[in-house]
Amino acid sequence: MSSSWTPDESSEALLAEKGWLQGAVVSSIAYGIGVTLFFMCFYLLTRQITRTSYKKNLPLLIYITIDFILGTLFMATLADFTQLAFIQYRDYPGGPSAFENNMFGIPVDMLGNVCGVLMMALSDGLVVWRCMVIYKGCMVPVWIIMLFPCLMLAASIALGIMWLLQLTSNSPFFTSTNINYTVPYLGLSLALNIIITIVIVLRLLTYRHRISKVLGSGYGTQYTSIAAMIVESAALYSAFSLALLILFLSNNPISAAFIELLPQIQIIAMLLIVFRVAQGKGWSEDTMSRVMTSKPSIQAIRMGDFGYSLQGGSKTFTSSSGMRVHANYKSNDQDSADTNV
């Protein structure tokens, strides 16, 4: 290939353009993962909607639908803006990289920015909600635990609005100030997610310790495994946000690819949480009591030695020594009953 075909731009500008274009491609792949997760969640939630459960499932259904629409609009605006920069206005002075930096206020880019801010607010709101659910029943009143995260969420939303206004407004308040709201906005959202990730993981580790101490290490793993902790705490999103902020603060041109990918990572992390909830594996307000009361009253025989079959309102356990144990349960509560040996 002849070097004369390369645009007359600096190496930094060319690297930024490569990062932008490759980020758009990877974002499309992540969007496809998000679409798959959305339809899986949608299917599970719609199947479970009844007259008694719609108050629990309908809000989640509305949430994932709004998130999916915003994610689709973001991808559409990203594709259109990329086309404008690399095809229609390819000869813009400074190239596509300069076009991106100077054309924040055009409608297609503004629509994408609004969608991104709304998606971040929804994502932050969901992890705050999960934190509240997991900490319900704690010895400390839940409002004390949630006060600081809720204040951080409100501040993050406010900074997001200020960031949008800074991109488009000609007000002297924004043009005369030297404050760049991008870093405070991303930094506060990142701090919120890291804090919530830590407190959720600590809570689940505490539960795992209690469950393991009473019932054994293999009990309740669907709620306290490493994978469950990563999903419940949205650790995927927190780790990605941290990488983005480090690249952005170091003025690395590759940060453009991470910025484009961030909304899709948000959607994937949030849909994974909803998917666990829809499967019945997500932590709920009564999970701790349900797990702790599900222990059979047979203490002399190890849980790992049992196999069991469920028929009607009874369970038959068979130990490794051949001893058979029959347990009768109440009709609507498989976890509390009289046990006959």
SSE diagram, text form:
Blueprint: H1 11-48, H2 54-88, H3 95-102, H4 107-135, H5 142-168, H6 172-175, H7 182-215, H8 221-224, H9 226-232, H10 235-249, H11 255-279, H12 287-292, E1 307-311, E2 314-318, E3 324-328, E4 339-340
Antiparallel strand pairs: 1-2, 2-3, 3-4
Model description:
With 341 residues, the chain is mainly α. The chain folds into two domains: 9-292, Rhopdopsin 7-helix transmembrane proteins (Up-down Bundle), CATH 1.20.1070; 303-340. It has twelve helices and four strands, in the order H-H-H-H-H-H-H-H-H-H-H-H-E-E-E-E. It has helices spanning 11-48, 54-88, 95-102, 107-135, 142-168, 172-175, 182-215, 221-224, 226-232, 235-249, 255-279, 287-292, and strands at residues 307-311, 314-318, 324-328, 339-340. A four-stranded antiparallel sheet has the order 1-2-3-4, with no helix packed on it.
Can you describe this structure in just a few lines?
This protein is mainly α. It has 12 helices and 4 strands.
- Total domain count: 2
Shape: elongated
> SSE order, as H and E?
HHHHHHHHHHHHEEEE
How large is the share of residues in beta strands?
under 5%
Second rung of CATH, namely the architecture of the largest domain: Up-down Bundle
Tell me the helix content: 55-70%
What name does CATH use for the topology of the largest domain? Rhopdopsin 7-helix transmembrane proteins
**Could you tell me the mean pLDDT?**
77
How far is the first residue's CA from the last residue's CA?
82 Å
Structural class: mainly alpha
Report the major sheet: 4 strands, antiparallel
**CATH C-level name of the largest domain:** Mainly Alpha
| Tally of individual helices | 12
Poorly predicted runs are 295-341
Number of strands: 4
- Cα-atom Rg, whole angstroms? 25 Å
